[in-house]
Amino acid sequence: MSKQYETVIGLEVHVELATKTKIFCGCSTEFGGAPNSHTCPVCTGMPGSLPVLNKQVVQYAMAVGLATNCQINQYCKFDRKNYFYPDNPQNYQISQLYLPICHDGGIEIETEAGGKKTIGIHEIHMEEDAGKLIHDEWDDCSLVDYNRSGVPLIEIVSEPDMRSAEEVIAYLDKLRLIIQYLGASDCKLQEGSMRADVNLSVREAGAEKFGTRTEMKNLNSFKAIARAIEAEKNRQIDLIEEGKQVVQETRRWDDSNGYSYAMRSKEDAQDYRYFPEPDLVPIVISDEWLKETKENQPELRDEKMARYKEEYDIPEYDISIITNSKHMADIFEETVAICKNAKKVSNWLMVETMRLLKEHSMEPEDIRFSPENLAKLIGLVDAKAINGGVAKEVFEKIFTDDIDPEAYVEEHGLKSVNDEGALRSTIQTIIENNPKSVEDYKAGKKKAMGFLVGQTMKEMKGKADPGMVNQIVTEILDAM
């Protein structure tokens, strides 16, 4: 009988914080600037330049720590992590090893296979990001962009509590939502503002001792993380089954080819020769500052979902989708506050908005229309000023250009024709011109009525109220 194995996984998650300036200087953190345009002597490691700590970084780190049930170290320090790499301008990184700002926390996840489970957080520490190496294959050289150098990071180090890719994704998704709801980062994996390194080992089921772990880097999507975990688990099991040793090392995941390869042997803390950062004083977080941060924590997703169930008459599935993006939840709440109809707002977000997001390959965070214009559109439909078909057409313009629907409807002559006399006269003419359809209707063929309604809508250029058209067509046919 073949042996059963268990996968043991811990994560190191790096999150770029949403400050306007870098952690130790006044340079912009904006993504996508021209190479080396957001730099100064401090973040390019010039001799004699001195770091000055950005207070907002400490504020965000504290907020994330509190939201993940961590203890806050009110006295913490920075340390130097020494290593040479071309994208690291000082040849050291300012980080925290001995006294990180947060420790001993955890968050609850839920998976289909395992139900509810708490994943421990060993620590959260603050540090600066390195620059970015760009490899030019044409000229066979590497170039360095220091725009990212000095961008503030928090590193969230989990306990090795995860046992499957499903648990890893659930943990990352929960972390992402907590941090987005706090406003501490946009957590866009594709832009590198949230990055996860996976530490993974396998052991025989029931064993207490951990196996030898590897660390996998270069994971920039949830799908890539899931694929990498599966591949690394199988690679390690194959080595053990063949009687070979798993080597502790850092591996790079190649998602397009579906395999990982060794980068370097895995370093331990002593290899970095950490020592206290001499250019920065310790951080002292007062009781008042900590209390104020606790009191100002926003409503997080779990609390929001519970409140929606109480306040709004919408399905739980709708609640889970809407609250899965803080931006969409904000749009929902602001629109409901204006038009006072949660169900209709939910329907527009769940059906038409989700359809258009998919068509345009966009995320909910990319929604640009205003709650005011969505509320106006709902008002136009409620007042029967426009019908459902026209409403969808107008919404597409709201989605792409955030147009004022009232002005757009007026300007393009899209208002519904609610004049019963004019409508009745048009329907009468259409019925007279289609005697075969009348015969079919009388013979019990209900599709004939659909044809007559369609002809009427076509004649009215889609601007008639379908309910009124159906009613009048039925009345006239039944009276014949």
TrEMBL record:
Domain of life: Bacteria
Keyword list, A-Z: ATP-binding, Ligase, Nucleotide-binding, Protein biosynthesis, Transferase
Pfam families cross-referenced by the UniProt entry: GatB_N, GatB_Yqey
Catalytic reactions on record: L-aspartyl-tRNA(Asn) + L-glutamine + ATP + H2O = L-asparaginyl-tRNA(Asn) + L-glutamate + ADP + phosphate + 2 H(+); L-glutamyl-tRNA(Gln) + L-glutamine + ATP + H2O = L-glutaminyl-tRNA(Gln) + L-glutamate + ADP + phosphate + H(+)
The protein's role, per its UniProt record: Allows the formation of correctly charged Asn-tRNA(Asn) or Gln-tRNA(Gln) through the transamidation of misacylated Asp-tRNA(Asn) or Glu-tRNA(Gln) in organisms which lack either or both of asparaginyl-tRNA or glutaminyl-tRNA synthetases. The reaction takes place in the presence of glutamine and ATP through an activated phospho-Asp-tRNA(Asn) or phospho-Glu-tRNA(Gln).
Quaternary structure and partners: Heterotrimer of A, B and C subunits.
Family: Belongs to the GatB/GatE family. GatB subfamily.
Protein name listed in UniProt: Aspartyl/glutamyl-tRNA(Asn/Gln) amidotransferase subunit B
Lineage, broadest ranks: Bacteria, Bacillati, Bacillota, Clostridia, Lachnospirales
